[in-house]
Write a structure and sequence with these properties.
There is one protein chain. The chain has 325 residues and is mainly alpha-helical. Helices cover 64% and strands 9% of the residues. It contains nine helices and three strands. The protein has a three-stranded mixed sheet with strand order 1-2-3, covered by helices on one side. Helix 2 runs antiparallel to helix 3.
Length: 325
């Protein structure tokens, strides 16, 4: 897994470096501030790619006494670093744009710059699709974040190409800083999104999609001894997950039988999260008489209340720290 992730991010790093050089050559060719904006953003791709290589390596290191949950949290630092770099690039682009509004420069060889920019945009598109697909396959938020950044670069470059075509045929050179201004705003927005995701991960904000996925898996394979599941908490460490929850079981189960039920839960969820490792810390709760009305165990020898109906597991009753009903 590590070799695949490093290979993917190294491809991104090498391609991004080549495309950055090409874009700067297009800027020196045309003196277009919009192309300069695109080139500045590409520098971030190279810097972020280098940091991503290190974070992927560190995230793959095994758990130790100082890091009992592993080193996967570094991936959130990685996307936070990338977000900060993108945000800084957006600010620099806006500053440079306002300078061009005050002291405009004549554009040169727009047609040549268009050919270079079109080639780099196509290469970036292929790279972005490759990274997004690889990030999903490898369950790597670092690779996925890098791919999303590349795709944003593609969209802004496509808009830039359209603007340069208009400038080439109309001579409306004021469009150049205007497009750069829009690109700077979009880049600031993307930087904010990555920073927001980084902070959410570092603060252990609950990913409701993961919670829903766990609930769906357990509901589809629900066993009669699993009376209810509550107080569920999910933490992400790289492409691995740590889940705490309480499971209510018949109070008369022997310890070996209760342990087997816990192992079944752990196995089911791990099979549903192919490519990731899910670690469970399960607290076993004994059932109480108020559980009888929704307990699915038909041959229960100690039932004190009649069954009235199954309770469907949802976020509303799985996340709070209380037994159902």
């Amino acid at each position: 897994m590590l070799k695949k992730e490093l290979r993917v991010i190294l491809v991104s790093l090498i391609v991004s470096f080549i495309l950055t050089v090409a874009k700067f050559s297009a800027y020196f060719m045309t003196h277009s501030v919009a192309i300069l904006s695109d080139a500045l953003e590409s520098i971030i791709n190279v810097v972020a790619g280098g940091f991503a290589c290190y974070s992927i390596y560190l995230a793959s290191q095994p758990k130790d006494a100082n890091h009992p949950y592993g080193h996967g949290k570094v991936e959130f630092f990685s996307i936070g670093f990338e977000g900060a770099m993108i945000f800084i690039a957006g600010v620099l682009i806006l500053v440079k744009t306002f300078q061009y509004f005050i002291l405009p420069r004549e554009l040169h060889r727009i047609e040549s710059g268009l050919w270079v920019l079109s080639a780099t945009t196509l290469a970036n598109l292929l790279l972005g699709l490759y990274l997004v697909r690889s990030g999903k396959q490898l369950s790597s938020i670092t690779i996925s974040g890098n791919g999303q950044h590349i795709m944003t670069d593609v969209y802004s470059s496509a808009g830039l190409i359209a603007a340069l075509i208009v400038i080439h045929f109309t001579g409306w050179t004021w469009l150049d800083p205007a497009v750069s201004l829009v690109m700077g705003g979009l880049i600031l927005g993307k930087g904010y999104q990555l920073l927001r995701r980084s902070i959410s991960g570092l603060m252990d904000e609950t990913d409701m999609k993961i919670v829903d996925k766990v609930i769906t898996i357990l509901s589809a394979h629900r066993r009669e001894n699993w009376i209810d599941i509550h107080n569920m908490r999910v933490q992400q460490y790289g492409n691995n997950y740590h889940i705490d929850c309480h499971v209510t079981l018949p109070y008369y189960l022997e310890l070996n039988d209760a342990h087997d039920e816990m192992k079944k839960i752990e196995k089911l969820v791990n099979e549903g999260f192919a490519g990731s490792e899910v670690e469970f810390f399960i607290h076993m709760d004994p059932c109480i008489p108020s559980c009888c009305h929704y307990c699915l165990k038909e041959a229960c020898p100690v039932r004190s209340h009649a069954f009235t109906g199954e309770i469907i597991w949802t976020r509303d009753n799985v996340l709070p720290n209380r037994k159902h009903g």
